[in-house]
Amino acid sequence: LEQSRFLNEDVKYQYQKICFHKGVQLFNDERYNDAIYYFNKSINVGDKNKLFYESYYWKGESYYNLNMFDDALSSYAMLTPGVSSLYGKSVYSQAYCYLKQKHFLDAISFFKKSIEFNKEQSILYDIYVRLGDSYFALNKYQSSVDYYSQAMNISGIEDDYAAYKKSNSYVLLGDYSNAIQSLNQLIDDFGDSNYLDDAIFDL
Question: Treating both helix axes as pointing N-terminal to C-terminal, what angle do 50-65 and 32-43 enclose, rounded to 10 degrees?
Fold first, then answer.
């Protein structure tokens, strides 16, 4: 197919499609550098169609898994509203890139932006927990309390973590009454939590 020089538009598209699916297969096999190679081949066909933008998204995901966050962000940036159904997912992924880089203000901005594109409860839950983490890292403890609370209202696998971080936030705010209430909730509701010993010690 590469030898055809893409004189035929159908051949050109089939080549782009084959490269994209090969990239996805390699991504699923956790061979991220090889996946990027094939995503680039798909992109370099040049037609800005669905496969073009999907290739950039999965190229970004590949870079993310390689901890190459700047490269991931550059790839995600190629997706804009209206041109790809993956734009919303790319916003969420960009938020995580900034979080990994400890660029907490950017992480907050993108996590908040991603809320409008993610209605699945498990994703919203994660967004709220990560917003709590980001605000905590910036010493914005009231905001961290608010987002950990929103996460716990949905409920998920990190509720014990959220309860513990929420209590820490209250302590740092000097609100010891609510801190004790939050720690007691952790002790009562999550008896097998990894945070339990710390919670008991804090009390």
Answer: 160
Q: What is the pTM of this model?
A: 0.91
Tell me the pLDDT tens digit for each residue of 101-113: 999 999 999 999 9
φ/ψ (deg, to 5) at 65 = -70, -15
- Give the DSSP H or E segment for 196: helix 196-202
Contacts of 156 (CB under 8 A, 6+ apart): 122, 125, 126, 129
Distances (CA, A) of 105 to 3, 74, 101, 170: 48, 18, 11, 21
Q: How many residues does the chain have?
A: 203
Q: List, for residues 60-108, the tens digit of each pLDDT value.
A: 999 999 999 999 999 999 998 887 889 999 999 999 999 999 999 999 9
Token pair for 173: 């705010």
Q: From residue 167, how far is each of 92, 130, 159, 201 by CA, in Å? A: 27, 16, 12, 13
Per-residue H/E/C for the chain: CHHHCCCCHHHHHHHHHHHHHHHHHHHHCCCHHHHHHHHHHHHCCCCCCHHHHHHHHHHHHHHHHCCCHHHHHHHHCCCCCCCCCCHHHHHHHHHHHHHHCCCHHHHHHHHHHHHCCCCCHHHHHHHHHHHHHHHHHCCCHHHHHHHHHHHHHHCCCCHHHHHHHHHHHHHHHCCHHHHHHHHHHHHHHCCCCCCHHHHHHHC
